[in-house]
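Hi! If you just cloned this repository, the fastest way to understand the data is to look at a raw example. We've pasted two of them here, unedited. The first protein comes first, obviously.
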Amino acid sequence: MQILNLFEAPISVTAYVPTRSPRRKQIEFLIKRYQRNFPGLELRFVDPADEPEKVRAENIRGGELIVSAAGRSQRTSHYSEQAFTDTLARLTRAADRWIVFVKGHGERSPTGVANHDISDWASTLEQRGLNVQEISLAEFSAIPDNTSVLVIASPQLNYQPSEAQAIEQYLERGGNLLWLAEPDSPANLTGLERTVGFERIPGTIVDPVSVASGIDNPAFVLLNRYADHPSIDEFNYTTIFFYACALHERPSAGWNAKRLIHTGDKAWSETDPLDGNVGYDENSDFLGPLPISLALSRTLGGHEQRVVIVGDGDFLANAYLQNTGNQDLGVRFVEWLAHDDALVAVPSRVARDNNLVLENWHKAVIGFTFLVGLPTAFALNGVVVWWRRRRA
């Protein structure tokens, strides 16, 4: 429950639930989990029938929780630990964060439902209080100034000169960028890639360790080597990438570059088609360790500008997002790029509560059962057996 470490002021939860509703017990059980770690969390129940004017004026729905701290408030109607944690995360944001996705070039869609789209990941960002929006560079001459993070998600078509210029101007103004590259990205994107500060190493990454783990497709890569960087601090989950490309940093003057994730020593970038027997060719392939993600940063006008490039978009696709740490990694990148550093370490998927919490009456029942109930039952059973044998 790292999210609680971000609060100093008391947190109040007002639950608008009817007096006799069974949901009150469910809410109490949920909030008690957080109160064990944050005594300043207060829960108050209000029957909507007792305050009808306020319910109408503030458009409060029955069963809704209003969570407040430091003069700000957020709402949720879900009683899961994940939903409540996301509500607290939204409460910590001092301002709106707009995550803008470029569209119109075959990019992975934040609203599409196909396996290759990234709508599940976009929904996770929205649940954490980030605003998701798509933009067509063919319709707008410039990227909005209130964009916190621009996302280029695996474009399949070239950008027109005016579209590439809009991205370059956004970067010149100090904008933050997440670029999901692919081995088969359009060749004409090379110039924009060099402007951003990277280039793709030819080929598709192949890792024999993944094949030895029982994965038939050589394009699947299991990764667990992470650099020391704020965006992935204490991140220790395995991530799965599919048809990924290796990257080489080419930062311009004034930029700092950091390799975030890299493959093992035995992996290589295969430049031939991935069919038939795939093997390393020292004359044409590139041997690992190979960087698969880069972070670039510079100080511009007293503000730190941040860029993250990942040589794969499949790891955030609907088909693969729930694999191991993929979702958390994608959320971490956006939180860091949006300068919400305090939220980077807050997981996007809450682990189940494994602590057993017993009330005093629970303990009394268990104690009575094992110390009195079971011995008495065994004794009675012995008496019955003895009586039956005596009469036989």
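Ok, and the second one:
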Amino acid sequence: MADQTTPLRLGVIGGSGLYKIEGLSEVERIDVRSPFGTPSDSLLLGRLADTEMVFLPRHGRGHPLPPSAVDYRANIDALKRAGVTDIVSLSAVGSLREDIAPGDFVLVDQFIDRTFAREKSFFGAGLAAHVSMAEPVCARLGDHLQAAGESLGLRIVQGGTYLAMEGPQFSTIAESELYRQWGCAVIGMTNMPEAKLAREAEICYATVAMVTDYDCWHPDHAAVTVEAIVRTLQENAAAARHLVAALGEALAARREPCTAGCDRALENAVITAPEARDPALVKRLDAVAGRVLG
């Protein structure tokens, strides 16, 4: 659990087009072994201003991993083992709303999880736990991101629902229209189960959804070229690097406790009685849940 005396260590998960962060000092690259699998890449440790930072490219350097092949459990476990207290997840998305345009950044506050081929929990048979996902992102971290984005003049949309689809194919028009009827703001393939696992690991988590295009529902969708999407992706990545740098400077001043309780999510969440717990699973959970498992 993080409090006023806990050193802040910011984890940044880079999405499509964002495989490195410039401006880091005291840079070190480390490989972290996880009992849950293989992380997407080695971790890049460094400093931005006075903030310690750990960067992980979600798809690996060069983007060898499609969304369904990312080992989300290994990634979050590795970041926890590296001492990360807060995660900013950067993700390329399509827009499901006319008023959210390519180039906009959306600070997501809700998710609908439509993925089906991924491990979604660190817990399981032999050790059951249930964390709340009613408020899936950290409002404290989101407020810092909004302030940092506004200071840079970025187009920031505060709030919106992220529809997480399995992929790797994009939506049909019928699916896209359905998600619009559900009130979703953006659609992507990567932030679930990432957000759920961060909550189980008691790490504050926030998503910056970087809009590259309108999804296929839009009447002008057919006119959008791959070149235009790639250009927007690259522009978003450059802006995201500036956003992370500004956030690092803002967070350096203090590390306040999480008012939403993200860093205490496992309190009263573990259901299995101590004598009935699987020792092997308890051992695997030493980083994620060691605070409450003792």
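That's it. A detail worth noticing about the second one: The longest strand covers residues 204-214.
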